[in-house]
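Quick log. Single chain, no ligands specified.
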Amino acid sequence: MLSREQILDSIRDRVHHPASARELMQALKIPREERPAFRRHLKALVAEGELIQVRGHRYGLADKMDLVVGRLETHASGYGFVVSERPLEGATGDIYVAAQNLKEAMHGDRVVVRVEHVRDGRAEGRVVKILERRSARVVGRFETDEAGVAFVVPFDNRIVADIHVPRGETLHASPGKMVTAEITRWPAATRGPVGRVVEVLGDINAPGVDTQVIIRKHAIPDAHGAAAVEEARRMTRGRPGQTIEASRQDTAGRTDFRGLQIVTIDGEHARDFDDAISIERLGNGHYLLGVHIADVSHYVKQRSALDEEAYERGTSVYFPERAVHMFPEALATGLCSLNPRVDRLVQSCVMEIDRHGDVVRYEFHDAVIRTTERMTYTAVNAILTDRDPETTARFQRLVPMFELMRELFVVLNDRRRRLGSIDFDLEETELVLDEAGMVEAIIPSERNVAHRIIEEFMLLANETVAQYLDERDVPSLYRVHEEPDPLKVERFEEFVSSLGYSLAAPPDGVRPRHFQHLIERLQGKPEEKPVAFLMLRTMQKARYDSRNLGHFGLAFESYTHFTSPIRRYPDLVVHRMLREARGAAITAERREDLEEEMPEIARHTSDMERRADDAERELVQWKKVRFMADKVGDEFDGYITGVAPFGLFVELVEHFVEGLVHVTTMADDYYRYLEDAHTLRGENTEKTYRLGDRVRVQVLRVDLERRQIELGLVQILDAVRQEEGRRHARRSRMRPKHERRAEHAATGRREVGGRHRNRGARGRRGNRRAGGRRR
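-> predicted structure:
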């Protein structure tokens, strides 16, 4: 039987027009017994957007008909963009779709769009088919109008139509409450969506409701299904919350590493522990590093209820107040977690590393470990950096191990620098919350030497596993980061050149080391952070793929995700493939199945990763906006982090909060947007505001509805206010005399010779000095 890739190639070679299923089977000479499977493949290719089903039940190649498949992202103003799933030839960026060309599609839907024209590298098109609705459920605010008609105002302002709720479908929600509505009739050309309330979340300012709103908005599954919970219960022998050790049956036949000194190093508040470390120095001076990863794949079997749920979620999601785990808590923080001093199953990657940081030998083991200690980043940093006597004394027997870890870290980090790996050491922030979930403070999160040690060890393990799978040509998932678009690199070079810097490489020949050298030159300079952010936007986004396309940012030829199977589904897939690669040879039939499955797993898990990132980022932004609500009128220092035609994005130095200076508040001139220079320039004053500039801003408005902070540039605001004051004074003097007399009469004043005099007790005698003489 032909694979999907082979079917596509054959259609491309032999069929030169949209054809019916029967015509395709005849042209491709599909045997009768294989025709049911062929029809299933056709349906799958249509679902994936590779083939488009047109009138007459005919199938055509999407790219031959100028059709593109992607996710629709709409704007509050009504128009949208389709984010293509494949590179679009002759165009950069997303495909613009005008409001009238959206058909009945809504934000988040997977659609087919016809590209109608491309101008200056930017494509425009219209939606011709909706392949997949994002979700039938929408979170929003329940309201009723004067006539008592109920509707839900979507929390996501990109969903531009309110959802009508018929009588009897309101679930007794009160106006103003946040609810979840299920769409029962999708919008049509003549009417908006209709739905019913399925859940009342409560008041938007109540503790925890903001998290629930974001979870519902992004359609993140919260509670685990009964079947998955039951599977987890059986594995933990019905004792949730208790420490359960791996059974003798599970540990039998595994490599026994319980005699090694092994530790986990995580944050203070971590509850799920994926990875543990062992290390020793060999007689030849090399290092023997063991990276031991929770063997989730031993417990979670393919196509089980736990596996199906984990696949749908794709990843755990971490919010400031809580986590939404990929697996039920009994596994995520219990049986699969490498908790201290209990027997745990792991897949171990043991690497011998020379003094240059190169892996000269490696082994993989299905193993059992028993961690010596649960360490924190803070404690390890206190030992290695602060030399804290109390912490050092407490963990005295482990101190030599930590010293050796730091020594190996330096070796590995030097190797990555030689390769040209890009190290964005950008400052991240942490929210300090009160009991109600409100932000008390926003502080920089520390990334100390302990964080960097673990990060370096995980990178090496991921690289080693990827090389092993690639060398054996085993179908799997890779974490890929492709080379940046030369056009974007060219624009980036133009900007940094205006600052006196350069990548020192042509746009189509730039390598990771060129970016890394620029970062090193910028270190400590005022423009370091903005240029680093722009550099990130110049790069492609990392994603999962069934092909090994390399990782540009890390300068690795092979890279995957192996080290977090409790919280990322791709890691679980890699564990399974690693075990298969180490076993008997993969059969041709099994290889064919895997080669068909992996592209869709890669696409789906990449989408779920983006969903989690968006949800985490949005909730943090929302909490930051609420934190700023009582600071309207206050002034802060900030720097410009983004420039757009409509204004400047400014991050406040003190609170690490970003707001928008809208161009309409810059009333001292007409400002023009210079895209390549990332600058707004005044037409008359020639005053410029450029990415990275330090500015003084005032908080003008905090829009809780749109979750936005509106700022104004103090320099311009003061100048405009002074000019308005002068104009008001001039207008006052130029008013007709009878208007001024009426005003003065009302205020007890009269005008004499163009001057104002008081008519109070002292007015008649004139002003006297202390000595009593008149002037």
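The longest strand covers residues 359-370.
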